[in-house]
Amino acid sequence: MNKRKLEYFKQKLLREKQEAINTINEDIHSSFQDYYKELSLYDNHPADIGSETFEMEMQMNLEDKEQKHLLKVEKALEKIENGTYGICEKCGKEIEFDRLDIIPDTEFCMKCSKDSISLNEKLKTRPVEEEYLKTPYKIFNGSFRLSGLDGEDTWQEVARYNKTDYKKMALDWYDNNMYDGSISGKVEDVEDISLEYYKKQINDDINKEDK
């Protein structure tokens, strides 16, 4: 890529960088009070501030998007300095000028960009607000070593309200133990061994000695 084109994209990226910084600085200082006119929110039901909660979630997503965009722009500016700008990181070919003109911070050519987004990555996408949540309020990872509240315990707590009169009914999830994968209160795997198993083992040993 010649110097004239590099300078063109450099100025374009610098403008985008400044716009991203301005957007982040404007949004980062806002709070719930900017969307709500009352002095206190403590005595309000969550349903009463549903619109305000939505606005805050939308702002968090926009801020996260701008942060990621800023990192990509800074990376593209570094590439201009070291002479690797406009080269696809996957196939090593030159990225189309039209594509760079629309997305100057892109890392891949059109073909590689389509191939790089797998179905797995799409399915793993989670709302940005979950990053601010701590266990047990965030997504459960299905850990078998966690002795505290997990996804299975949460399901059992709410499933009991769906209890039916017939044990074999498909809707009676709680009685059928559909998600009861472990013994309640178990911490170590050895605690899965039942008392009946121990008794049977002792009886077998006694019978062997008698023989």
TrEMBL record:
Entry-linked NCBIfam families: bacill_yteA
Protein source organism: Caminicella sporogenes DSM 14501
PROSITE patterns: ZF_DKSA_1 (PS01102), ZF_DKSA_2 (PS51128)
Signal peptide start-end: none
UniProt lineage: Bacteria, Bacillati, Bacillota, Clostridia, Peptostreptococcales
First and last residues of each zinc finger (dksA C4-type): 88-112
Protein name per UniProt: Transcriptional regulator, TraR/DksA family
UniProt keyword terms in alphabetical order: Metal-binding, Zinc, Zinc-finger
Alphabetized InterPro entries for the sequence: DnaK_N, YteA, Znf_DskA_TraR, Znf_DskA_TraR_CS
GO MF annotations in UniProt: zinc ion binding
Domain of life: Bacteria
Domain (Zinc finger DksA/TraR C4-type) ranges: 83-112
